[in-house]
Amino acid sequence: MKTIQVATTINGDAVEFVCAPDEPLLDVLRNRLGLTGAKEGCGTGDCGACTVTLDGRMVCSCLVLGVEVEGAKITTIEGMATGNQLHPLQQAFLDHAALQCGICTPGILVAAKTLLDRNPNPTDTELRYWLAGNLCRCTGYDKIIAAVQDAAQKMRTA
């Protein structure tokens, strides 16, 4: 099968890769670039485990083809921390025990950060609607909501 060369920006770094025309971005990230944070939960865009941002929009990377990201800016969970310093959302998830198995966590963190970048003071209802596309089978959602609200408050006062 023919491969196509793609140039893009991932987590602020210029990246080039080759992929098949039908290869999902999720597979490119995980198998070609070693960015294993995004997880495949369903492969159909229903669970949100593979959520990344593409030019500032949340997308399920299992539904985007690698060839479609030519010239785009992608942010994955690996781009949230600054060196060894966790993003406030990541720290809040640890502080509130808002994760268990970890399959959904990267997608939820990317989604929550995208919301807080747009709305630094969401209500619980707004937050629940925003995260509705990210499914968690382990924790329930109360600890996740509490963690995001705690991080939002800390980010507003920082």
Features:
5 helices; DNA polymerase, domain 1; 5-stranded mixed sheet; alpha+beta; 34% helix; Ubiquitin-like (UB roll)
Description of the structure:
- This protein is of the alpha+beta class and 158 residues long.
- The chain folds into 2 domains: 4-79, Ubiquitin-like (UB roll), CATH 3.10.20.30; 88-157, Orthogonal Bundle (DNA polymerase, domain 1).
- The chain is 34% helix and 16% strand.
- It has 5 helices and 5 strands.
- The protein has helices at 25-32, 88-95, 105-118, 124-130, 142-157; strands spanning 4-10, 13-19, 51-54, 57-60, 73-75.
- It has a 5-stranded mixed sheet, with helices on both faces.
- Helix 2 packs across helix 5.
- It is globular.
- The termini are far apart.
- The mean pLDDT is 96.
CATH class of the largest domain: Alpha Beta
Number of H/I helices: 5
H-E string: EEHEEEHHHH
Question: What profile does the largest beta sheet have?
Answer: 5 strands, mixed
CATH architecture field of the largest domain: Roll
Please list the strands of the largest sheet in the order they lie side by side. 2-1-5-3-4
Could you name the CATH homologous superfamily of the largest domain?
Answer: Beta-grasp domain
Total discrete domains: 2
Please mark out the parts with pLDDT under 50 across 5 or more consecutive residues, or reply none: none
Q: Radius of gyration from the CA trace?
A: 16 Å
Structure class:
alpha+beta
Give the helix proportion (percent range).
25-40%
- The chain-level mean pLDDT equals 96
Structure summary, number of beta strands? 5
Dominant shape: globular
Which percent band covers the strand fraction? 15-25%
Quote the distance from N terminus to C terminus.
51 Å
Q: Could you name the CATH topology of the largest domain? A: Ubiquitin-like (UB roll)
